[in-house]
């Protein structure tokens, strides 16, 4: 009996191909949007978590309030760095100076980020943040006019390819490329130019300015207690609390909260398409009931009961939801991989889409459920028709 229901339901859907296609279109769009947004969101979150894991949990960052690490900011000073370097809990302290300006090479100018970084023991410091000299060498302490560049700088930024020992011009001063870093996987890091900290400060005429401070904590040290000490010392020294002291976990928690809000908003918007699709199924099933009153009457005349009619119509609407879900999932996965390809082309190769099979199964079940729920009222109306009423219409 169940097989017969399936056969009749599929026959009715294929008999009205154009209507079925137009009806499931809303489900397709809604499911595709939701699946692609969730997959891309999960992949983005995973790639950022991987980068934080590479850095390790033994780090504390000092930034001005409201700023994120890597943002161009002012407010910290060399004196703040000296205060933190006195802490016995730290292996060492990295001070960053960041600014953006035009960089010229071969009569071509490009806007790029310049990062000042401590030159003493540069190899160890850079290696600790997973940056290695793929070509050339690291700049040395007190070395003038030397810079290291991300992998995209030599290959993609300028029309003419750069090489080791080539000169670039920044603010009318020439700098020689002594090293090229390994590819990190995101365009921001891979298109950055690094130079000794003091040299960068002088270049931009900001000799005492620091954008961010990174403190690497020794093993076995209590991070929470250290953070509290840092806050107290910096507050006394600066006579203000206009700064934040954050751990990688705190930064990741903030990022996760932002990602959750973004995903909820985007998925809610995509859900509107799903709602439109559900209303389309309901409308189509109501039309089916009106067109098939005689068929319903015949079925009841030969012994079909209300529950059989109800089951048949709900099965049809469920099939429409399922078909729309399967097509939508396929399109959503394709869209997610398209985003990965576009991100890689833009220099963000760290974004890797991974298929979540539980998400796929849930999306199929959800689409099928939406179809059934949408068809419940029309199916109930069909089930309540009396044979005599059906033959009169």
- Strand line-up of the largest beta sheet: 3-4-9-6-8-7
Helical fraction equals: 55-70%
Largest sheet entry: 6 strands, mixed, barrel
| Unreliable residue runs | none
> What's the number of extended β-strand segments?
12
Total separate domains: 2
Taken from the alpha-carbon principal axes, the silhouette is elongated
Could you tell me how far the N terminus lies from the C terminus, measured between alpha carbons in angstroms?
28 Å
Please provide the ordered H/E string of secondary-structure elements: HHEEHEEHEEHEEHEHEEHEHHHHH
| Residues in β-strands, percent | 15-25%
Give the oligomeric state: single chain
Q: Layout of helices and strands, plus pairs?
A:
Blueprint: H1 2-15, H2 17-55, E1 59-64, E2 76-77, H3 78-85, E3 90-105, E4 108-117, H4 122-128, E5 133-136, E6 146-149, H5 151-157, E7 167-170, E8 173-181, H6 187-190, E9 193-196, H7 197-203, E10 209-210, E11 212-217, H8 223-238, E12 243-246, H9 248-291, H10 293-301, H11 306-345, H12 357-384, H13 387-392
Parallel strand pairs: 4-9, 6-8
Antiparallel strand pairs: 1-11, 1-12, 2-10, 3-4, 3-7, 3-11, 5-8, 6-9, 7-8
Helix pairs in contact: 1-11, 2-9, 2-11, 9-11, 9-12, 11-12
């Amino acid at each position: 009996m169940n097989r017969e229901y399936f056969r009749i339901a599929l026959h009715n859907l294929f008999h009205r191909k154009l209507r079925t296609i137009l009806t499931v279109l809303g489900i397709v769009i809604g499911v595709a949007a939701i699946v692609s947004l969730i997959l891309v969101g999960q992949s983005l979150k995973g790639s950022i978590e991987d980068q934080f894991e590479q850095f390790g949990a033994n780090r504390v960052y000092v930034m001005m309030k409201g700023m994120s690490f890597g943002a161009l900011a002012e407010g910290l000073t060399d004196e703040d760095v000296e205060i933190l370097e006195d802490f016995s809990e730290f292996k060492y302290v990295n001070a960053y100076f960041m600014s953006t300006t035009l960089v010229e090479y071969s009569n071509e100018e490009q806007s790029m980020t310049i990062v000042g970084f401590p030159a003493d023991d540069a190899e160890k410091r850079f290696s600790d943040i997973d940056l290695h000299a793929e070509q050339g060498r690291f700049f040395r302490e007190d070395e003038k006019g030397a810079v290291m560049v991300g992998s995209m700088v030599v290959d993609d930024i300028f029309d003419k390819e750069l090489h080791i020992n080539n000169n670039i011009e920044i603010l009318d001063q020439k700098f020689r490329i002594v090293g090229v870093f390994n590819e990190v996987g995101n365009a921001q890091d891979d298109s950055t130019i690094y130079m000794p900290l003091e040299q960068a400060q002088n270049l931009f005429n900001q000799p005492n300015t620091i954008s961010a401070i990174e403190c690497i904590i020794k093993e076995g040290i209590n991070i929470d207690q250290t953070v509290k000490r840092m806050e107290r010392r910096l507050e006394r020294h600066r006579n203000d609390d206009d700064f934040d002291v954050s751990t990688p976990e705190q930064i990741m928690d903030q990022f996760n909260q932002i990602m959750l809000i973004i995903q909820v908003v985007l998925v809610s918007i995509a859900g509107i398409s799903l709602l439109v699709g559900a209303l389309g199924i309901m409308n189509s099933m109501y039309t089916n009931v009106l067109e098939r009153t005689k068929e319903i009457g015949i079925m009841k005349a030969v012994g079909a009961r209300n529950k059989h009619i109800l089951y048949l119509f709900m099965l049809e609407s469920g099939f429409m939801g399922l078909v729309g879900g399967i097509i939508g999932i396929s399109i959503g996965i394709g869209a997610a991989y398209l985003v990965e390809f576009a991100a890689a082309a833009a220099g963000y190769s760290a974004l890797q889409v991974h298929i979540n099979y539980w998400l796929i199964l849930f999306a199929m079940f959800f689409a099928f459920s939406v179809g059934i729920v949408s068809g419940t009222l029309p199916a109930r109306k069909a089930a309540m028709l009396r044979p005599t009423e059906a033959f009169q219409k």
